[in-house]
Amino acid sequence: MEKEEALNALAALGQETRLDVFRLLVKAGKEGMTAGAISDALDVRPNTLSTHLGALSRSGLVQAERDGRSICYRASLKTMQVLVTYLLQDCCGGNPELCAPFLNMTGPASRDSTNDC
User: Fold this and answer.
1) So what's the pLDDT on residue 116?
2) Is the pTM of this model over 0.85?
3) HSE of 9 in the Cβ direction (CA atoms, 13 Å)?
4) What is the torsional sign of CA 20, 75, 24, 52?
5) Distance between CA 25 and CA 111 in Å, rounded?
6) Which end of the chain lies in a sparser environment, N or C, as judged by fewer CB atoms within 10 Å?
7) 1 closest CA partner among 80, 99, 82, 56
8) What residues contact 49, with CB distance under 8 A and at least 6 apart?
9) DSSP state at residue 87
């Protein structure tokens, strides 16, 4: 991940509604949610939600997939993992064992490898 990509992802999450949307989609898992379901769950107007989903999609944190007449949105856990790895890649001042518990939580074994949401 490049610095610009990290900044875009962090900026996308730096807004309350977008953070709520991302967390909701993480909870939804592989099934994802339609914009209408997200709007209802968070009590956000559809046109406002559309703007937020666009920002999250452009940052790579949310993926949209057409499902018939609907669009299903899913959190991109892979992008989030890459972001966290970028933020921690030089952590602990040369003492990686200090970060080991956290890095083990975010490592490949801690997620379902088939879930590229």
Assistant:
1) 40
2) no
3) 22
4) positive
5) 16
6) N
7) 82
8) 17, 21, 35, 38, 39, 42
9) H
For residue 108, what pLDDT is reported? 54
- Are 58 and 96 a contacting pair, CB within 8 Å? no
pLDDT in tens, 22-66: 999 999 999 999 999 999 999 999 999 999 999 999 999 999 999
Provide the token pair at 22: 């991302």
Rounded Cα–Cα distance for residues 81 and 116 (Å):
11
Distance of CA 45 to the CA centre of its chain: 21
The C-alpha angle 60, 36, 113, rounded to 5 degrees, equals 40
Walk across the sheet containing 33-34 and list its strands: 33-34, 70-75, 62-67
